[in-house]
Specification:
Shape of chain B: globular
Strand order of the largest sheet of chain A: 3-1-4-5-6-7
Number of strands of chain A: 8
Oligomer: heterodimer
Largest sheet of chain A: 6 strands, antiparallel
Helix content of chain A: 40-55%
Structural class of chain A: alpha+beta
Chain lengths: ~270, ~160
Amino acid sequence: MAPSEFDLRAALRDGEGEGLDPDPLISQGRARAAHHRVRLLSGVAVVAVVAAGAVGASQLRGSGDSGSSSATGSAAGGLAAAPAHAPLQSASTESAYRVGGASMLAAKAAAIGCPPVAPEFAPPNGRTGRYGAAQPFFRQPVAAMIVCAYGSTGTAATAPERQPARLELSGSQATGLAASMVRASSLPITQPCPAGAGQKFAMIGLAGNGTRVGTVAADLDTRRACASTVANATAARYGWSPPRALERRLLALTRMGVPKSPVASATG
Amino acid sequence: MRDEEGFRSFVEANGATLLHAARLLTGDHHRGEDLVQTALIKVYLKWGRIESPLPYARRALVNAHIDQTRRRWWGERPTEILPEPVEVEQRSDATASESRDELRRVLAGLAPKERAVIVLRYYCDLSEQDTAATLGVPVGTVKSTCSRALARLRVEATSGAR
């Protein structure tokens, strides 16, 4: 007996139910929007330079004419025209930089790609003693943070065209995350701490001008805080807990990687 | 300032159905994830300027899928010779899940636009008019494409236009 439309509907519905996490979509959307803004501003700057060049060329043509009243008139007209155009150039250039700040930082963050695998840092004295207890993780104060998620195995890419999921933080979220790392214990946890399925992250700190100021390898296990660590070449901390508001978002990133985008594929 | 909370709520409410629709369109788990991500990023970029986000998201999904099939060759070839009616018709003891698997397998072999019409009509439960609006084609095209696709799926069409 041929299947009915009811059977078809049932067949199509079979397997549905897995939801979507909005956070990676918002991160990717922000990166795409920042990329568009940079391209738009670059285009505006190019147009302004071309317009200024055209005005300059007309000025030169006007001042090269000899003595007739019409030439004088056109020279005067050319000179009179220049100030009217100059503000356009300066306004465009000014707007290109005035819009900067947060947009430029976001654009620079979007251009930094995640490492293909989770970084590993081994303190030189192993897990004993205090390593970098008085050292910061980042060379300068952090204004933005790129969080790259690798799951429990440390490799998110299951195919060449996929990359780790990422979250871009700025402002108080970035500074709060950086502060949580420093607050954690600089002494290794001595009580028995069973190994769990920690989720691995790379956290790339950016200063206010978009310069990279450090990368930290984080291992987050929400069931056993004792097993969560953060470390890089200058410091290590144990029993780390991220800010509560961020913890859910960090763990939601640990799904399989996402497709490579043109912006994120650039290495910083 | 983009209303990200509004977008977040939209994804939480509709993400599951959009993801499943994307997987049905592409016939592949991972390509479906990529497709729905492409569509929802377009929705995000236009958020605040879209009157009806769900129809817009469906349109973005279908258009992105059809664009991808134009650019890449998946190896699917819509055949003029209808496939042999195997388990679904001849085995009276076929289990329901085997029938569903067979339908899904044949669905994956349809042409991209035929598959899009079936997914929009029978998974998203859109009317012929709404399906036509989503695809940007006349209602008559939807009817003929649907009829052709149902014939390939060997499904008995029991309902008229919604």
